[in-house]
Amino acid sequence: xxxxxxxxxxxxxxxxxxxxxxxxxxxxxxxxxxxxxxxxxxxxxxxxxxxxxxxxxxxxxxxxxxxxxxxxxxxxxxxxxxxxxxxxxxxxxxxxxxxxxxxxxxxxxxxxxxxxxxxxxxxxxxxxxxxxxxxxxxxxxxxxxxxxxxxxxxxxxxxxxxxxxxxxxxxxxxxxxxxxxxxxxxxxxxxxxxxxxxxxxxxxxxxxxxxxxxxxxxxxxxxxxxxxxxxxxxxxxxxxxxxxxxxxxxxxxxxxxxxxxxxxxxxxxxxxxxxxxxxxxxxxxxxxxxxxxxxxxxxxxxxxxxxxxxxxxxxxxxxxxxxxxxxxxxxxxxxxx
Length: 337
Fold this sequence. Notes:
Layout: E1 14-19, E2 22-27, E3 38-45, H1 56-68, E4 74-80, H2 105-131, E5 138-147, H3 149-160, E6 166-170, H4 176-186, H5 204-213, H6 215-220, H7 228-231, H8 236-250, E7 254-260, H9 268-282, E8 294-300, H10 309-336
Parallel strand pairs: 3-4, 3-5, 5-6, 6-7, 7-8
Antiparallel strand pairs: 1-2, 2-4
């Protein structure tokens, strides 16, 4: 990850805590000002087949730049190993794809990164009791940044964790069904095509989980989904189901989706129809235009399945803008008290 940072990576303090049985690394605690109570927390979710240590350079670069700006709100970053990775590795095969000999690739990958979002919520509940036991600081903002596998999980965190105000998904995908259908085709599975959903490679139990937690699955379903759902406006009866979901999951939140135009592992085309559907919903004439959802969707031409230096710069800008806006809101709330 250090090679993708477009400038020298500074040194930054780090501490490791065992929180809820999970080895958790917190960066930037020693640089927090005692004169400011408010702290923002940036959660860093690593890619598949890597571990939390690879996020260290990114954590250092973001904290150093933020501290250099001299903002009143402090910033820390938190990383931990995703399930079945790093210190939590149980089965190397479960992290592999169909073409690498894992017959349960679809179940394994979804359950692992869904588990990451569950772990993040759990850690968020207990984090302050470990690092601020005397309430010296208050965590007022939570942002999630995930790459690849972590990018998939970042979508889940934004939708299903009310305490997360913003998320950045780098080379991730919000539509698990389309991603797996594409991989099934490329892997030449016998079940690819019309019979894929509900087959042994995408079994009914997984279908139910995807419809409950996956962004596209939650809003558009899995069973019986066809291409028309992505392009047409929801009917009034469909809006009765969708509006409460959108209000609960996305109202007032911020999202940056970053993809590589030459990414063959997680092709942008897999998530693009859902992103187009979401953009239409929140557009100036959209049926969720008053939801105050900010969505930035950027594709970097010629970039594969990687986080390029240009992507890092875009991520920095989005994080700092989000933090500035959150700080402004916190000041306004305090002035009214």
